[in-house]
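It is worth pausing here to work through a concrete case rather than discussing structure prediction in the abstract. The textbook approach is simple: state the sequence, then state the predicted structure, then interpret. We follow exactly that order.
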Amino acid sequence: MNRSWVTKLIVLAIASVLVLSACSSGGNKPGSGLNSGSSQNATNVNGNNSGDSGQSGNAGNAGGQPSGAADSSDPFGGWVEGLPKIEAPEGFDWKQFEGVTLNVITENTPPSSGLAANIEVFEQATGIKVNIEQVNLDIVVEKAGLDFNARNSNYQIIYADPYQILSKQAKHFVDLNTLNNDPTLPSIPGGLEDFIQSQLLVGGFMGDKEHLYALPYDNPTMVLAYRKDVFEKYKDLFMQEKGYDWTPGPDMTWDQYYEVALWINEKAKAGVISEVKYGTGHQAKQHDSLMNDFSNVLAAYGGDYFEAENLGDIGTENPGKSLLTSPEAIEAAEFYNELLKIAAPGSTTWDWNGLAEAFAAGEIAMIPEWHEFAGMFENPELSKVAGKVGWTILPKGPKGRGNMYGGTSIGINKYASDEEIKAAWLFLIWATAPQTQYMILDAGFTPTRYSVYQLPYIQKAMNDPESQEAKEWPLASSLIAAQEAWKEGNVYMRPKIPMWPQIDTIIYTELSKMLAGRQSPADTMKEIAKQSDRLTGN
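Step two, the predicted structure:
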């Protein structure tokens, strides 16, 4: 997904963390390994230099300053006690690929921006030049497709979105098992078992688990953001009128969510509530965001898109028949249609960015949103609600819960030269290493490694909202909700099938007609099912 507002936050976040990091001699806080050198070879969709945030000097880190004189015990500097080390075979020359240039094509995401700002750490240790091109996901899909179709390697490293790229282009990626098992090369620090396993399945494999095509890179997940101040201030009044605690949490149902949102609308209109205008807002534009928003409700009502198994993890070529004509799917569509009728009027014009901007402006009390926006919401330069936002998992429905997962991995173009492939492997090792993930936490990045979450600093930040650690790391507040959302029974992963991009378009196009009053929820589900089955040959 494209998170332009998050990208704006990165520049501010990196500048601020470098000041904090320079003052820390213990290296105990996220981002304390950030390198302040500006990179001239990282560009984003606006053509800006992602690595140039105007800072000077060097930031402190736990393992000493990064330097060109890399060694096998700590080749990149900044190792943090408690994390698996980046290690190589004895006598390995980290600069054997010096002079090689690697081009990375990636969506504009927090890890991409964080890595771009610190790419000199990798370049100085290896002598490899890395150009990181950050663009919207549709451009990544287009450029990767052009490379693959022509058997070219203009981009040696590719942001392998599981649904838009990996599901239909897996054969064009290097099997990373061949590199990880090569005794002459470094292996994955901490091993594959250190990656969050559900995220490894969806982002690393396609169709089977024999071939590993990519390593988990980011993991945005939809959870519920809400205004703590509003819910605390009017808690007693709601209790008097409705008879239950309205605070969003794991026990909230979608029916209660609707009732709470409607109550806030009415009280705001009557002038009783002045802090917000609307109870709920949604990313319901005719866009991929609408499919994501609806899927949360679909899963909670016990519905799904297709009948085949393993659709959401390793994926499959044939998803079987559509399930959208089921009673559960139709009931979900009926509820979603009613929910959007009481949502903020701008909802049908907003994608995830527009929704985040409206929430940050203080207009809405509750929104289902990607957890990575926590950094934006807590930044007073971008948000009017800093310090007022709570996070929890999305409401439950009659038959379960759904929190849409949107993570992606990175892989290597198999049409690159042998030298480029090995150099790219070093980049993947570094970019997904626990110590690197820890280094760029303050850029709004969410770790894909178990080991990072076990660090005392991270545990303190996540388990004690009032702690100094939590205040220094704004993303901690949403990560508690995200981790709960990743649990089996809570997370929802859309079908990973080759034809998903076309089906995604069918879904949000027909849902838009429903929200505009042009067709009923039942007819909408039937139309999506009909077009989907025609496309899949079922």
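Step three, interpretation. The CA atoms of residues 57 and 461 lie 28 Å apart. The first strand starts at residue 42 and ends at 43.
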